[in-house]
Batch of 3 targets.
Target 1
Amino acid sequence: MKHLVKAGCGLALAVLFLTTAASANEYRLSNNQRISCSRGLSPGKLATATCKSYAYLFNIKTSEYFRCQVSVSMTRDNKEVINTQSDGSCVKRPRIFDNDSSYSFDATETEPPNTNSFFGQGGYAIWASDNNARKVRGCIIIGSDVSKCVDMKFE
């Protein structure tokens, strides 16, 4: 009986491990990353530079995705770096398609905010396609208020 319980526990752990490993293979990083940097002058001849970059992590089975951003800020005087700060996180976004399948995707963002002041921080676009059917959806997200996805028509 003890051997049966041990075998059952071992089997349960193996299934749990394989399920976790399989789900890790369902994520892909976007191929379109950008970096934008800005400079500023502070009182006392201090210069500050801030750089931001983003990427998208896409679940190729469910079409859920994460928008990830990293930033580094550096302050220096004429001789040395005085302060460095960094930050980064990923935010989960909703599914693009309602059903599970096998999906491909790509993503891009607008240029830094100073070129898109009408829309605040600007926006981004996500393109996703179903690898098992002729189905393509394009989504544009502007700020945090406007999000619209359109199914492409094939003529």
Target 2
Amino acid sequence: MSARTTTRTTARTTGSFTFADWEEQPIGSPDSTPRLARSTVVNSFAGGIEAGATNAGYTFTYTGEGSGSYAGMELLSGTVDGRRGTFVMEQRGTFDAAGTRCTFEVVPGSATGELAGLAGSGSFTYRHGETPVPYEFTYTVA
């Protein structure tokens, strides 16, 4: 009997996304600091990740006027460098008057279709008023 070895090649891809829809609701008093809010967002990705209308949910902590941090999950259905499937990204970021900085990671076991076994992470920096938002993503697929 021989053992089968699976090699994983690391790839890097880039692209951009735009916010298609954003709905935010306060959790508790909207006039206090710190305060919490939750949002549902629809994004559209182009480039290495092609996903027309994602579904995302975030929880925000506002620690000052227009500043704080957030965490969330985003469900993407589309392609990564031509491979079709669905996967979930876990995101964490901070924001202030200059913009938003975010890192994200594929949720282990969430990828389907030709993306089954997808693992990876990436980041983006959004500067207020600048769209689309560029991202970079480094990944492997089994």
Target 3
Amino acid sequence: MSTNWRISSFNGALLAAYFIPTWTIVAFKIMISPIHGFYEQPNISMALFVSDYLQLAATGTVRAAWLLALVRLTAVAFFAIFVALVSRPSVRKAGGCDEALGMALGIGSLISFALMVMASHAGEAAALRLHATELLLLLGTAIVLMVEAPAQPQAQPMTRVLALEQPEFLHNR
């Protein structure tokens, strides 16, 4: 069994396994049909908030939907970069993938928090629970990432390097 996985790396990989397919499908539904995709369950809070409080026209609603899809795909891209970096053991052990995970967590938390607030204003209980759950997942991983100490490089065994002038065995002169 391999024990070189850091807790934050493992937790980030689990989050990426959820957010990459879920948010990609949601974003592509918005790209294919902006209004119809915007009024589906994962986006209903923003759709109702935009239509009720901002009172945007149809083109403004489409632009808001595309902006949401773009921001979600940005978070997905950072999760994908994290997965690519975490697949290399040397990068994973040194914690070199933490920046990509941090960006994905920051963007994802911002999206989930904003959508949670919009769901609260719109009165959508199911969307509120969905976005609160996503926000708690992201914040939990961010806390683990901040609390976990950076990996210390393991000491390599010292090998003697002999100069050309030094004899290897002193008693054989």
